[in-house]
């Protein structure tokens, strides 16, 4: 039997949670591994601390005034940036523990809504096929 077959994931998550100081790690363990309810006090406290995370801070610093992170989903290789696309930025935000109530994802949702309804044209290159 391998290592993972001997590990009780719940117990291991609780062990890591006791020593985890990074709010993103805490949110993800509580939300994704332990499945605590969204109104749980521990989850609320971890979410409140998310802006203190260096990773969340970096992501938010890269977000543009329009709510996106540059191109929608095709990376612009002529520009070096930590967050290459809006699609990547949203995925990263969720992976870091942010949710729809966060300012960053609210702004991103507004950006995407404006793209979808035609009020904003993304700077992506046209797709290579007509589909």
Topology, element by element:
Layout: H1 3-6, H2 9-19, H3 23-33, H4 41-48, H5 54-62, H6 86-95, H7 103-116
Quick summary:
The chain is an all-alpha fold and about 130 residues long. The protein has helices spanning about 5, 10-20, 25-35, 40-50, 55-60, 85-95, 105-115. It has 7 helices and no strands.
Report on the architecture of this protein.
With about 130 residues, this protein is mainly α. The protein folds into two domains: about 1-50, no CATH class; about 55-120, no CATH class. Helix content is about 50%, strand content about 0%. It has helices at about 5, 10-20, 25-35, 40-50, 55-60, 85-95, 105-115. Helix 3 packs antiparallel against helix 4 (about 40-50). It is elongated, with a radius of gyration of 18 Å. The N and C termini lie far apart (about 50 Å). The mean pLDDT is about 90.
Q: Structural class of the secondary elements?
A: mainly alpha
The major beta sheet can be summarized as: none
State the shape.
elongated
The count of strands amounts to: 0
Radius of gyration: 18 Å
**How many separate helices?**
7
Residue windows where pLDDT falls under 50 for at least 5 positions? none
**Cα distance, first to last residue?**
48 Å
**Helix content bin:** 40-55%
Mean pLDDT score, rounded? 88
Q: What's the SSE pattern? A: HHHHHHH
């Amino acid at each position: 039997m391998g290592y993972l077959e001997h590990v009780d994931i719940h117990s291991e998550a609780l062990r890591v949670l006791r020593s985890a100081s990074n709010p993103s790690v805490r949110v993800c363990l509580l939300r994704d591994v332990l499945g605590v309810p969204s109104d749980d006090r521990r989850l609320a406290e971890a979410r409140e601390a998310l802006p203190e995370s260096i990773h969340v801070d970096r992501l938010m610093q890269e977000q543009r005034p329009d709510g996106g992170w540059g191109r929608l989903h095709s990376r612009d290789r002529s520009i070096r940036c930590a967050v290459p696309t809006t699609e990547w930025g949203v995925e990263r935000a969720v992976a870091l523990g942010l949710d729809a109530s966060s300012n960053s994802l609210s702004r991103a949702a507004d950006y995407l809504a404006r793209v979808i309804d035609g009020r904003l044209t993304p700077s992506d290159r046209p797709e290579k096929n007509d589909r």
